[in-house]
Each structure stands twice: as structure tokens, then as C-alpha cells.
Design a protein that fits this description.
The protein is an all-alpha fold and about 525 residues long. Helices cover about 75% and strands about 0% of the residues. It is built from 24 helices and no strands.
Length: about 525
């Protein structure tokens, strides 16, 4: 029954996505990579959330909460503040240029070398870090939720892991490679409703189990039994020390929600600025509520099933397996699979976009290539990277904290790219040479700091790592600022208006943005206490 329900809901999303996108224009670059610039606020919000809310969050963040408690809400709550910055500051500038990728914007601001360097950094990071991570955490989550060992009779964890990874990878590739961005956005939105509904249901059922049928009593019992897990500020030994909120943690959040191609590509496809801002701020509203499904269940799992959880990243799957009725397990597994697929196919679509528009047409000197050839090459590269990711994912097994590992590795490319984008917007005379030096030098410094002794031992702790990221960011910004003051930069760069997008802002942008920032501060104050 469970497997039939799972297959039914997975197929249903696929059929609905095909039906809703069957008349879309996937033969042109704008249609394939930017959904024809037709996305409205609801699709943008749903796609933003589902691209982010995958098993690296469901599995990884609940696992982090199992260890550290609600202080890991920084990754979700501060995301709302970052989305406000995106809606108010970054998005109007991106849409003014009519771009499809961040590297395209950097070419407009600096030069073609900057675009090619950024495209290659993104592609390498997605292929080596992000895509294998999504597949690995997805396979791990599905194993526990569906209890694949019992269902299949396969007792070999390695065999199950490989089979799950390839199933997810193949289905996700079909969406991304053959459907284009609109198919990704539509499937994201459909799965989004299921994930939010199912995630909230898991929390309600888990708290009810802790409170003998009374959800509020369950919350009170869990809080009374583990008061140390309900403090928003972390100590130096936690995964998110409180003082890092103002350095590496905030920077990683800002890059992720304002500059990360695989996330913000759907905002470039907005019908107009008003729809884009509405979608981004709607996503921000949901982000401040997601701790209910991404953090609280991990703490409840500690309270109820600590004796069964052999490693933190298995806490969520074990909790779901215990509290969810059998007849709903297949549905929720399908929703989780949808979340996994949405993240995988979004990253893969962005990778194909980056290669086709940033490398194939420019770096490989195919500027005159027609849309058909550009799209075909994008699909080919997407296929190759998908296969590579499916082969690499199982080798991630054995990490102590998969979410912590992801955040650390993300810093390798987040910081250099974010510094160059921000410097380009803030420093009107910033030079292309300084931007290119920052990209290459920043990645090199971070690689040395992470992997070359004795520096790697100095950045081993979470606090040292986040402050290291903050220090490198300040160094790169200072370098670019000083070069912009040297007299060799552009004379007052002025951004062009492509006139491809209506730039009339949403009238409620300012009050909604202020309200969200106030709510973020309120959440931290409510749970404030001595750092633990």
C-alpha cells in the first residue's frame, strides 16, 4: 500500500506538471531558461521554497536541531531577512538588466572574463558539492521514511543508497533537462503544498505523541525536559555560535538568497518587478514559519526516540516512521521525493543555463549559435553533470553532520562571488581586474584555509570557520574598494535598462519588508537566553 501511494502521488505531480506546461515555449532560450518571463508571485514563492526545502534541510537541519536545539533556526529565520534585502535592493537591479544569470550581470558590470570565471565556479561547485549532497541526503531520507530495507528485503545499505540515488537522479534529470525552468517551477509549487502540509502534520503528530494526544501538552513536556534546546543563541561549541550571526552565517544567508543562481533564477523569470517582489516576500513569510517543520521535529525526536537514533541525520526519518500512519507514509514519501527532485532539477537547470549562456556562447566563442544549438548543448552538459553527481553522491556517507559539511563547503564559492556582485553594485568605479582577482584569489584563500595544514586546523571549529569567511569577505571588499579608488576604474558606471521587464514596484513592498524584519528580531528576543 505504501509503495503504491508513493508511486501514485509521484506520477500525479508529473502528469499535472506536463499538463500545465504542455503548451510552453521550450524552443527558445528565454522560454527554456527563463520560462518566457511569465512567472507570477505564487509560482516564484513556491519554487523558491521548494528549491530550498529539500532533504538537506529536512534531514540535515532536523539533525542539527537534534544536537543543538532551536539555535539552528538562524539558517531559516535569517533567510527571511536576506529575502527582504533581495526584494528591496537586488531584484530591481537584476530585472533592470534583463539578465538570465548572475555571470551575465557580471559581464555587463565588468567584462567577459568575469562572466566566464563566475560561470565555471558555479558549475564546478554545483557538480562537486551541491548536486551530490542533494542526492545523498535524499536517498538517506527516503531509506528511513519508506523503510526500504524492510520493503525491498535488501540489507545492504550501500546497495540501497546507490539505487535510491540513481532513481532520484534520473527522474530529476527528466524534469530539468527536458522540461525547462517553467516545468521546474510548476513541479516545485505542486510539491510545495504537499511538503508544507505534510511537514506541519508530522510536527502536530509528533507533539501529540509526546503529550498523549495533546499537542500543546507535548510541546510543554518537550520544553520542560530539554530547556537547553529552546535557546536561540548558541555558545562557542555549538554549530552556530551567537557572534557568528553577524559574520559568516549572515554572509552565507545573503549570498544564498540574493546571488545564488540555482535559487534566484526563478526571480529573473518574473512577469514584472511587482510579481517578483510579491513572490520573494511571500517566500520570506514562509521562511520564518519553517522552523515548525525543520527544527522542532528534531528536538521531539530527541525526546521520544533518542535510543534509536544512531546518528543525528537519521532523527527525522525515524520520527516520521513512528508517528505517521501507514496510509499516509506513501503520500509523505512522495512529497519528500518531490522536494528532493525540486532541488536537484533546479540546480541542474541552473547548471545547464550557466554553461549554455555563460560558457558555450561566450567562453567557447559560439556567440552566433542559434537557440536550438545552445539548448542542445545545455541538455548534454546537464546529462553529463547529472551522471557525475549520481556517481559521486554515495561517497558522502560517513560525514558527522551533513548540514554542517554543506555550509562549510558552500563558503568556498559563496564568499568570493558575493563580494564581487556587491562591490560591483556599491562601488561605481570598481574594476574588472579587481573583480577577477577577487574571484580567483578568494577561492584560493578559502581552499588553503580549509585543506592546507596548519591553516585547516585553525578553521576546524564552527566559530573559527564562520569568522574566517567573514574575514575573507572583508579582505576582498577592501581590495576591490581600494582598486576602485586608484583612478583606473570606470567613471561612474551607470546600469542600463533593458526595457524587458516592467519595473513598477509592488506597492506593499516596504511595509511588508519592515514587518518581516521586526518579526525576525521578535523571534530572537522571545527565545533569547544565556548562550549554550
Amino acid at each position: 500500500m505504501t509503495i503504491l501511494t508513493f508511486l501514485f502521488f509521484t506520477a500525479l505531480v508529473g502528469v499535472l506538471t506536463w499538463w500545465l506546461t504542455r503548451k510552453d515555449d521550450d524552443a527558445s532560450s528565454t522560454g527554456y531558461f527563463l520560462a518566457g518571463r511569465t512567472l507570477t508571485g505564487g509560482y516564484i514563492a513556491g519554487s523558491l521554497l521548494l528549491t530550498n526545502l529539500s532533504t538537506e534541510q529536512l534531514v540535515g537541519l532536523n539533525g542539527a536541531a537534534y544536537q543543538d536545539g532551536i539555535l539552528v533556526m538562524a539558517w531559516e529565520v535569517l533567510a527571511a531577512a536576506s529575502l527582504v534585502v533581495m526584494a528591496v535592493f537586488f531584484l530591481p537591479k537584476y530585472l533592470r538588466s534583463g539578465i538570465a544569470t548572475i555571470p551575465e550581470f557580471l559581464e555587463e558590470r565588468f567584462n567577459g572574463t568575469t562572466r566566464s570565471l563566475t560561470s565555471l565556479i558555479f558549475i564546478a561547485a554545483y557538480a562537486v558539492i551541491l548536486l551530490p549532497m542533494i542526492l545523498y541526503t535524499g536517498a538517506t531520507g527516503m531509506r528511513d521514511i519508506l523503510d526500504l530495507e524492510a520493503m525491498t528485503g535488501i540489507r545492504n545499505d550501500t546497495a540501497l543508497l546507490w539505487a535510491s540515488v540513481w532513481f532520484i537522479g534520473i527522474v530529476g534529470s527528466i524534469y530539468a533537462i527536458f522540461g525547462g525552468l517553467r516545468a521546474v517551477a510548476v513541479s516545485d509549487t505542486l510539491n510545495g503544498f504537499g511538503l508544507l502540509t505534510g511537514g506541519i502534520l508530522i510536527t502536530v503528530l509528533a507533539l501529540g505523541k509526546a503529550g498523549d494526544g495533546n499537542m500543546l501538552a507535548g510541546l510543554a513536556e518537550v520544553k520542560a525536559a530539554h530547556p537547553e534546546k529552546f535557546v536561540s543563541l548558541g555558545g562557542d561549541r555549538s554549530s552556530v555560535p551567537w557572534h557568528t550571526l553577524f559574520s559568516g552565517v549572515m554572509l552565507l544567508n545573503l549570498f544564498y538568497w540574493t546571488t545564488n543562481q540555482q535559487i534566484i533564477q526563478r526571480t529573473f523569470a518574473a512577469r514584472n518587478l511587482a510579481e517578483g517582489q510579491r513572490g520573494v516576500l511571500l517566500a520570506a513569510l514562509f521562511k520564518v514559519l519553517t522552523p515548525l517543520i525543520l527544527i522542532l521535529p528534531g528536538i521531539v525526536a530527541l525526546h521520544l526516540y533518542a535510543d534509536e537514533v544512531t546518528q543525528p541525520d537519521r532523527a527525522y526519518g525515524i520520527l516520521v516512521g513512528h508517528v505517521l500512519p501507514d496510509w499516509l507514509t506513501g503520500f509523505f514519501a512522495a512529497v519528500v521525493a518531490g522536494a528532493i527532485l525540486s532541488s536537484f532539477n533546479s540546480v541542474l537547470n541552473s547548471t545547464a543555463t550557466l554553461f549554455s549562456l555563460g560558457v558555450y556562447k561566450h567562453w567557447m566563442k559560439h556567440d552566433q549559435a542559434d537557440d536550438r544549438r545552445v539548448i542542445e548543448n545545455g541538455k548534454l552538459v546537464g546529462t553529463v553533470i547529472a551522471i557525475f553527481s549520481m556517481c559521486a553522491a554515495p561517497f558522502l556517507a560517513g560525514q558527522a553532520s551533513i548540514f554542517g559539511y554543506l555550509q562549510k563547503m558552500n563558503g568556498l564559492y559563496f564568499i568570493p562571488i558575493f563580494s564581487v556582485v556587491l562591490a560591483g553594485l556599491l562601488f561605481k568605479r570598481a574594476t574588472a581586474a579587481a573583480a577577477n582577482h577577487a574571484l580567483v584569489g578568494g577561492c584560493a584563500i578559502l581552499l588553503i584555509g580549509y585543506f592546507v595544514p596548519p591553516f585547516s586546523s585553525w578553521t576546524a571549529s564552527a566559530a573559527a570557520n564562520f569568522h574566517f569567511l567573514g574575514g575573507v569577505f572583508l579582505l576582498l571588499m577592501l581590495y576591490q574598494y581600494l582598486r576602485s579608488r586608484g583612478g583606473n576604474g570606470m567613471e561612474g558606471w551607470v546600469q542600463r535598462d533593458s526595457h524587458e521587464v516592467d519595473l513598477t514596484p509592488w506597492r506593499w513592498t516596504r511595509p511588508v519588508a519592515i514587518g518581516l524584519l521586526v518579526f525576525v528580531a521578535f523571534l530572537y528576543l522571545v527565545f533569547a537566553g544565556p548562550p549554550r
